[in-house]
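Case study.
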Amino acid sequence: MSSVVAFSVFGVDWVFLKPYIVLGLALGGVYALSGVGIVVLYKATGVLNLAFGAVGAAGALITYWMINHTSWPHWLAYTTCVAFGGAVNLLYGVLFGPAFAKRDPLVKMMGTLALALILLGLMAWRAPAGGAFVRVLTLPSTDHSYTVFGAVVNLTQILALAFAFVLTVVTTLFLRYTRLGTAYRAIADDREITSTLGVPVRRVEASAWLGSGLVCGAAGLLLADLYTSLDYSALTFLVISSLAAALIGRLRSLWVTMAGGLIVGLVQAILTPYSSVTQYRAAAPFVLSIVALLWLGRKRVVVFSPTTR
Amino acid sequence: MKSTKVKVGVALAATSILALVLATWAIGGSQTRAASQVGAAGNAKAAKCGMGNGKKATGKPIKLGTINMLIPGVDFTTIAKIANAYFKCVNDNGGIHGRPIQYIQYTEQLNPAQQSTLAHKLIESDKVVGIVGNTSFTECGTNWKYYKSKGFTVIGAGVQAECFGTPPIVESNMGPRYSNIGAAQALLKRGAKSLIIASPNTIAAYADGGVLKLAKQHHIKGKSFPIKLPVTDGNSVALQLVQAAGKGGGVILDFTPDTAPTIMRGAIAQGLVNQVKWGSSTPIANTFMAKQFPQFDGKIFINNEFQNLTAPGPDMTSYRQINKKYAPKVDLQAFGQMGYMDAKFATIALLKVKGAITAASYNKSVRSLKNIKTDILCKPWYVGNLAYHIPNNYDITVTYKKGKVVKVDSCFAIAPVDKSLVQTRKWEKQFHLNG
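After joint prediction, the assembly is written out as follows.
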């Protein structure tokens, strides 16, 4: 009865769209948690991390190898993916963070692009795509499914959404109420002054790289399962959707970033079954972030310097 | 203080570098797999390869060439790898009257200019006497006129219309269009109320057309979903297909083993497996897939253009042995059977040549081939001097069962929805091409 009533609300066939909404929320959850990881790192270091997806993809490949080619326990494989993300990010942050610290944001971002390309090259060299088989990484939680409002939802999808929400709450509280979180916010405002006040800036930045990296690893695992294929180049470029979420949050608000990630995931999923627009759904993150930036900046006053009048 | 910091920094860097090296090594391990060798249900005596005399061929090489497509999501080089394995076996068993076969292999990425260049290179620079084992989404269309102008008859494993509709190309397989029709017949036999088919978008117009004709003949819904490769979101694709099919409908997947699993996983993750009847064209009829997808046991009906991989006949036994000895890293699969047959038929043509082996004499010999018996196919194979060739037009249906591939329908004729198939069967009778 409820599905019949829902059928014609707003003239949209909600029964038909329900499964896509589920898919969209799950993927949106991963974009949201990745977006939060990107924003926190940006707040602490000023770096927009373009290697987010590549690190997660590499971690997922390692997990795939451990599960399919060793007899090690699966929990160790999943933990390794997350730890790998943290380790690679930390290594990059420790080695290159200080060198890039005084450079402008574009240069800092290009540094992470280099990391992404190196990882992509390594993955293409050591684990080329193609061949007679495809790599698939399925989490054990995917085997558990439930019916929610008439749609089939598996536990991985629920976890993706829940994790995004929990991470946003925890990170918000962390930034507001902990000394380390306060240090992050201080560095975001002014790194030099924060340093002169005795805050160990490099250690704080390193902790941000580590934390963001752990989120990288977790996102890599979830995306490899939700996308049903371990295509490392596709997983690498899913960072675009996460970046869109971060941009919608203007690299400041974690809650708006979370909402942005969910919206990106939903829009992409809902466009899927409509053949006239499905080929444009890859552009959804770009379009949404442009619209959001224009809308959110609509009341900003542009001030010209006296010399440009 | 400073030296402690330096030590800590160096230790951290060293540990991280070690982790990265281990990671690189580990990632590399992901790509290697031991080939799964299928135990046959009783082996017959293996067919001999070439002259079968156990002597290594040492004379002047006879050059054959191939062009195989290799793109993200589809790897056809398996056909060439197994053809090469067969030729190695031939060379270890006397070659062609003492002369070894040298097999030159090129790959292409769906670029017509590249395909044309490679064909010219093989014939004019490498001076091959024949082209064997070509497989691509589009190469037949690019090069068939060139092959005809040079008097070449290519033995390959085809996909697009020109592979089955032009004089100079003959295939050991039946291609996706007819294989999909066979899958549709299997689903209709089991009461499917609609026929929905998904294929790579580069071949969908041709590959799906036969199924749509069959659906129309049976007055049921038919719909084609061209899918862009590589598939990165199997969940959405599976959902679209099942929704289009409706309850009790049929969904046919026309993908290779490096794409189909993504969609099948999506179906499993969303509880869609039992909602429709599933069918597929040949490429996923192998035990690797059967072991990966027990959820599809008895629920997917795969049209198999060739005999089961565990079948005991002489050619199947020979294929398994050659695969094990000369290409152990390659899984047993339909592409391997295609490569084996292409190489076998080319070898028969070479051995039939009387006098000097040249491009002219070899290709003339190829065109004279008929009634070539092999236990891998339902009926004998042939070439003939025909306007087009569809020698493989009978096949079987298989399904997965407890990690194995089992036959559920014995050899049956592909439904003659195309005029070309009707005409082919007339020629077979007229010229006694296959018994």
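Observations recorded in class. Confidence is low (pLDDT under 50) at residues 1-9 of chain A. Chain A is about 70% helix and 5% strand. We will return to this complex in the next lecture.
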